[in-house]
Amino acid sequence: MGDTDMLSTVATLLGEPARTRILTALLTGRAMTAKELAYFAGVTAATASSHLSRLLAGHLLVMEKQGRCHYYRLRSAEVARAIEGLMTVATIPSNGWPPHHHVEPALREARMCYDHMAGHLGVAVCDMLLRRHHVVLVDGGGEVTPSGERFLAGLGVDLPKARGAKRQYCRGCIDWTERRHHISGAVGAALAEAFLARRLVARIPDSRALAVTPLGGKTLAAMGVAQYRATAPRSASAG
Questions:
Q1: Which CATH architecture has domain 3-75?
Q2: Rounded distance between C-alpha atoms, residue 180 and residue 159, angstroms
Q3: Is-cis flag, bond preceding 214, omega within 30?
Q4: Tens-of-pLDDT digits for all 239 residues of the chain?
Q5: Where along the chain do its domains lie?
Q6: Which of 4, 42, 128, 201 could pair with 210 in a Cys bridge, judged by C-beta atoms 3.0 to 4.6 Å apart?
């Protein structure tokens, strides 16, 4: 199959609303069962199974078996980035800015983009890292500076693990709601992992959205991201 045929196949897969909802649900970075994905897609289990089979055949998903359960997740960070890129195009308005009047406010504020942080939070953290010269983004890639290595290590970010990952180390990713860069790649994933582990942010159930905890609000202010206040419900910081 040539490149043009492959592109047409992917376009066909993405052209069905239920399959699109399945893919966007998996942008949380978590694996889900067919039953869970049927719920998010708003279809029956049988219909979801058919869609999942096509997405597996199209190499957009992978399936892992744990006991009697089958879990589905996006095949790679590249697939997630492609979906986010299409969402950026899809939200371009026909009559001007802003492009996200219809986007859920919680998603616009802070969310997971597969395995890294996005939304206003992700962009604000990226801006701070660039402003302090902790990260440099160039030519579709990026690098963490020596000062950035010290700063991120202080946050609990596992940079040695990120350097050993079989993926791009650091890059900027255009945020589909903010239209500016947030940090992705192995560094972006490690940063999100550290924020979650330290309970600076908490996942909102059944959503890609993240909530900034009271501790997170204080930490972000100390980092120079002062516009961020705590948005999490009490349960988010209680563990």
A1: Orthogonal Bundle (1.10)
A2: 24
A3: no
A4: 455 556 677 778 888 889 988 998 888 778 889 999 999 899 999 999 999 999 999 889 999 888 888 999 888 878 887 887 777 666 555 445 455 556 688 888 999 988 999 999 999 999 999 999 999 998 778 999 999 999 999 999 999 999 999 889 999 988 888 878 999 999 999 999 999 999 999 999 888 899 999 999 999 999 988 576 545 444 444 33
A5: 3-75, 84-238
A6: 201
